[in-house]
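Lab manual, section 2.4: Encoding a predicted structure.

Procedure: take the sequence of the chain (190 residues), apply the prediction step described in section 2.3, and record the output as structure tokens. A sample record is shown.
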Amino acid sequence: MNEEQAFHAVRQSLKKRRFEHTERVVEEAAKLAQRFHVNVEKVRLAAILHDYAKYRPIEEMRRTIKEKGLRTDLLLYGDEILHAFVGAYYVQQELKVNDEDVLTAIKYHTTGRAKMTQVEKVVFLADYIEPGRTFEAVNEVRDWAEKDLDMACFLTLRNTIDFLVKKEIPIYPDTFNAYNDYCLNIKRRK
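Recorded output:
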């Protein structure tokens, strides 16, 4: 699938505002990929497709998880993360994208995970820092994204966990595992 086809598929499935978010994520992801010497083509495709399932009906996504044997533990952690995991499945099934780097970047763009690939890190971070994001903590992460991909991902995870704790929302275990992985690796670097 080329970028033009991917943009067409996403434009059909997203609301205008979310499509504009996607365009900003793609631009940010491409900059990060170039800065940190990550495969720009894979990063751009994953960034284009990262929210492909964002507006699928919740019941459809829940049914897909159950029927297709996807990680059923997802159903315990709120509906907001479903579109990422189910989206990777839909992108593979419906759009015939089979590149594992692209699919895992889509799958983990909301939760992160321990031992993320470089493509996953870039899409995860780009989704968090794209220029349309205006919450207070984003500027520190943007500053770190100029010089240290891992530190920027660590701060993204820390901020996400803080936000979810304050809202008393359950946190998917992959997010904790990612935080711990980055925390340990960053401490080792010092």
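Check your result against the sample. The chain has a mean pLDDT of 96.
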